[in-house]
Each structure stands twice: as C-alpha cells, then as structure tokens.
Amino acid sequence: GGMPEAVSEWFRLKDESILTRIEAVSQIHANLIEGYQRDFGKYSGQIDAQLIEAVFNAIPAQLASVVDESVKRFRFKDVYGKKSRYADFENAIAWLHRCRLTLLNYPIEGRPQAPLAAYKKDNRVKLYLFDTGLLNHMLGSSYREIKNQAYDYKGYIAENFVQQEFAVGGLEPSFGWSDARAEIEFIVSDDSGQIIPVEVKSGTRTRAKSLLSYKQRYSPERTIKLSATQGSALVEKHNIVRPLYYVETIFDLLSESSKL
C-alpha cells in the first residue's frame, strides 16, 4: 500500500530485486513524511506547527498501542508538553483533518440513532492516518512482516484500511459504538436510517462477544463483519461476512438494505 507515487515506483521496478524495490518505496515514503512536516510550518498560520507535528507523529504509535482490542480514543496526555485536554489539541486536529492527513472516528455511547453525527462528542475521537502505507513506514514495519502478516499489531492496520475506504466512499468522519465492556469499530446508517454495526477482525483477533452484545441490546436488522479470512461472498439478509478487501461493497449494501 501507499501513496500513488510509491505504488507506481513499486511496479516500475518490477524487474528489480525486492530489496531495491523496498528501498525505493521507503525513500518515497520518507520524502513524503518530511514534506508534510515542512508544510506544518509553512501553512499552519496561527496554530502551533510543533503541536500539529506532535499530533501527527503520535497517531501511528497510539494506533499500534493495542494488541487484541479495537483502536482506542486518542489520548492527549504526553503528546505535547504539559497539554492534556482536548481543547489544547482541537485546532491542531482540525487542521490535520482539513488537510486530509488524519481521519476521524467518533465512538458513540448508548443506543445509536440516525443521524449519528448528532450523538458524537468531539473530545471522544479516534484518529487514523490517511494512508496505510505511510502508517507502516512511520512505524518501521518491515516488508517481511507486512507480507507474512506476522506483526503483532495488525488489527489496527485493518481498522485504518477500513477507515480509509470509508473516507473514499464519503463516510468520513465515521462512527463507532462503545460501552464499558464492548466496542464495535464502526457503525453506519443505511438509506432508511437503520444503524448497521460493522465489526473488523484481523488474524486471530476474536471479538465476536462485542457484536453479540450489540445484537442482544439493540437487535439490528443487519450486521456486517469484515474479516482477514475469505468470509462469505454471498449477500445474506441479516448477518453478512465479507473479506476486508470487499469493504467497498458496504456502500451498495447500505442502499439495498432499505429496499428489503
């Protein structure tokens, strides 16, 4: 994965060794990150450029801080000096979001209803990076780890990928659901206003209890599970299981579900 330039370079060097291709793509990623960081100072205006950079740099580490759980809300403490409140970071986050360098997800507590945006709390926000290839680069993930899917924290990679796909499809910011003991990574609203939970699973992560808890509480007409395994390619009426790379088909399901 990665920016168009990185992907183009990877295929341009298709006849070269893997090592050569990796080094070339890694250099493009490094140059892109450095360019963004320079732009913080050029275009941040009245907002502290160092604060913007601190938030940007903190996103990968915070995403990777969970192993067998969903990505957590962004933690403000220890990101930049003694600042620890959402109000201290609000403008920096908004700047990064306007520049499309970070993607936002708001976990909603209690029964979710349409419109979901009406129930979000600004200070309860997850921050994802806008590009999964750059995310892996900033974390120093090796090509072998990525190819073999052997790295421990791949759950957040799957979530970041889904968030990216949602953003491309116009579902950004996105929303999730949480309570004291369960969490659903994403919830979406179909054309009729029905709320559909979307659970993201990667590798050996087993979070079926969260989806079961949600179903027992709210009895959704439909559920969707995106899995690293092949899943089911069939369109089932109530419980849909799709491989992660089918995430874009969710948009069709949101239109179809209101007709069922």
Compose a concise summary of this entry.
It comes from Pseudidiomarina aestuarii. With 260 residues, the chain is an alpha/beta fold.
Span between N and C termini?
Answer: 36 Å
- SSE succession: HHHHEEHHHEEEHEEH
Low-confidence stretches: none
Question: Structural class, from helix and strand content?
Answer: alpha/beta
> Strand sequence of the main sheet, in spatial order?
2-1-3-4-5-6-7
Shape designation: globular
Strand content: 15-25%
Total separate domains: 1
Helix content: 40-55%
Indicate the radius of gyration in whole angstroms: 19 Å
- On the 0 to 100 scale, the average pLDDT is 87
Number of helices: 9
Number of strands: 7
Largest sheet: 7 strands, mixed
Give a written overview of the molecule.
With 260 residues, the chain is α/β, with parallel strands linked by helices. The chain has one domain. The chain has helices at 4-12, 18-43, 49-63, 86-98, 132-139, 143-148, 154-168, 208-218, 250-256, and strands at 102-109, 126-129, 174-178, 183-189, 195-200, 223-227, 239-243. A 7-stranded mixed sheet has the order 2-1-3-4-5-6-7, sandwiched between helices. β5, α8 (208-218) and β6 form a beta-alpha-beta unit. α1 (4-12) runs antiparallel to α2, α2 (18-43) packs across α5 and α3 (49-63) crosses α4 (86-98). InterPro entries: DUF4143 (IPR025420). It holds the Pfam family DUF4143. It comes from Pseudidiomarina aestuarii.
